[in-house]
Amino acid sequence: MNEHQRSILLHSASRFSPPPGVKLSYGTAGFRADASLLESTVFRVGILAALRSIQTRSVTGLMITASHNQESDNGVKVADPSGGMLSQHWEPFADALTNAADPNTLLQLMDDFATKEKISLEGAYGGEVLLARDTRPSGVFLAEAAKQGITSIMGVSATDMGVMTTPQLHWMVRSRNNGMEASEHNYYDQLSSSFRCLMEYIPQGNRNNIVNDKLIVDGSDGVGGEKLEILKKMLSDLSIDVRNRGDGVLNEGVGADFVQKEKVVPRGFGPVDVGFRCASLDGDADRLVYFSIQSNSNKIVLVDGDKILSLFALFIKEQLNILTEEENGKVNKSYQARLGVVQTAYANGASTHYLKQLGLEVVFTPTGVKYLHEKASEYDIGIYFEANGHGTILFSESFLCWLEGKNNELSSTSKGSEQPKAALRLLAVSKLINQAVGDSLSGLLLVEAILKHMGWSMLIWNELYHDLPSKQLKVKVVDRTAVSTANAETVVVRPVGIQDAINAETAKYPQGRCFIRPSGTEDVIRVYAEASSQEAADSLANSVARLVDRFLGFNATE
Ligand code: G16
Which is it for strands 470-475 and 525-530: parallel, antiparallel or unpaired? Predict the structure, then answer.
């Protein structure tokens, strides 16, 4: 790097010293910690996003959010030029950069990395980083730190998009790099027009089917509620009542994470909402779950990411079947689209069984959309969802090309038949769904369109299969990195002995399944248990949580 660049960096880095004794790691979804510890990290991630922009000659993104975490936490992650998560081979550099003790060490690291990755630091390429934040108050000063980091790299500019959902920012990065218009308005426009297109092609018989038209949405007191208020004004076929739009404490007793883990009614909902279709977003609106409220109880019936995945898979399979159906006595074999679904160990066993019964290819990855997304991109249509409501659908370029061609051909030769409609529906899904990353707003519109298409109530949807009872717990431990896992997180390899103890416990329960893993976003070990009854799942989770405490807790005895 030249002297001018060096002096800019030394000057700006000296204003953002890392807090002493704090070591952070780029986890499941970037860096997360108490917001007061993050200023220097966000500054340095600004530098990283700028370098990535220079290297790829593309726009990158920087999002300031701690998603489902408590309000006092915050976080930062980078969106790659594709709109997906930061390339995993950059993560060790992100760790080294954020933990560098002083400006000189920081510069040395940058020099070494720039040489290795052939990144020019001479200001020759004008890079750009789109920057956004969620509604956390700490986002304001952290965004300033990010701007300082980005603009301390010569030739790179920071474009502040203000308060956005995480998926909006990822969508904008993807759109910009695809040469498309990428304003917030363009985002709403694309979602609402593709939703309208799906509504237009609802089968005749289901058109007048009244699928209880009101949907009530819990915005988690985060950014999703206010954005949904804007989007809903552009939709005519759907009545949405948005609650928890930001007047209460973010993620406290509200939101997708709370609803999915606790399975109780979120704040702002009550007995008058019994019988309605309800949905919850999380703090930065990248997760979506549905629920209904049980009468005379604070319990809910949860319709989680696994069921959203099943609904999407069923619909897409139906459209593909229509397209390849016999026509004039011939089977249309012009394109055999590979459809695959991706889940994690958190997927309820009943959902996996159901998807396999549909004849679908089901594969597993560790937790974290970066893993699921990568796997899903190997298919012509890859659908991925985590049980927590994080997921989307990816379409390959070659399949979309074939679909466009098929649509043109069919619209002239088979007017009025179901085949051109199936092609149009799939094209509309590819535009409605956010292919950059899981997006609760686009996911919600797709769920609503498919329910209308099927003529289904939420009750019918929920009956696709019956979840095995499950329980999730978290255990505070001295050092969560002491746990390492294998086989998509289903087996613990370290500490030695704990997996045998978990196996022995699990064997006591009919249909028992249990695993533990270190959280990538909080300082805890997570425990997941499944069994034939709720009591058994609770009991298995509790015994394994005690095992975790025995091996790794503050008074560990193993
Ligand atoms: C993030 C990731 C998700 C992942 C979740 C797991 O979610 O983006 O893919 O499922 O973390 O969290 P943990 O590792 O703590 O169990 P989010 O919504 O917080 O960004």
Answer: antiparallel
pTM of the model: 0.94
Fold of 3-179: Alpha-D-Glucose-1,6-Bisphosphate; Chain A, domain 3 (3.40.120)
Closest ligand 1 atom to Cα of 166: 20
Q: Is 526 in the pocket of ligand 1 (CB under 6 A)?
A: yes
DSSP-assigned beta bridge partners for residue 385 = 391
Q: Does this chain's domain 3-179 share its CATH topology with 306-416+425-433?
A: yes
The pLDDT of residue 211: 59
Residue 67 annotated in active site: yes
Residue indicated by tokens 């704040």: 267
Supply the DSSP symbol for 173: H
| Pocket lining: 368 vs ligand 1, CB cutoff 6 Å | yes
In the prediction, which pLDDT does 210 show? Answer: 56
The phi-psi region of residue 417 (left if phi > 0; otherwise alpha if psi is between -120 and 50; otherwise beta) is beta
Q: Ligand 1 within 6 A of 369 CB?
A: yes
Sheet of strand 157-163: strand arrangement: 31-34, 73-79, 59-64, 128-133, 157-163
Cβ contact 537:471 at 8 Å: yes
Catalytic residue among 12, 67, 138, 543: 67
pLDDT averaged per 10 residues in sequence order, the chain, 558 residues: 93 95 90 97 98 96 97 97 96 97 96 94 86 98 98 96 98 97 97 96 74 87 98 92 96 97 96 95 98 93 98 97 71 76 97 96 96 97 98 97 87 76 96 98 98 94 96 93 94 96 96 95 92 97 96 78
List the domain boundaries for the chain.
Answer: 3-179, 306-416+425-433, 470-557
532 annotated as a binding-site residue = no
Peptide bond into 469 cis (omega under 30): no
Fold adopted by 306-416+425-433: Alpha-D-Glucose-1,6-Bisphosphate; Chain A, domain 3 (3.40.120)
DSSP string, 486-514: ETTTTEEEESTTHHHHHHHHHTTSTT-EE
**Which residues partner with 242 through β-bridges?**
217
DSSP labels, 392-416: EEEE-HHHHHHHHHHHHHHHHHSTT
- CATH annotation of 470-557: 3.30.310.50
Question: Does 522 sit in the ligand 1 pocket, CB within 6 Å?
Answer: yes
pLDDT of 409: 80
The C-alpha R_g of the chain, in whole angstroms, comes to: 24
Tokens of 126: 């004008």
pLDDT at 521: 83
CA 139 vs. chain centroid, Å, equals 20
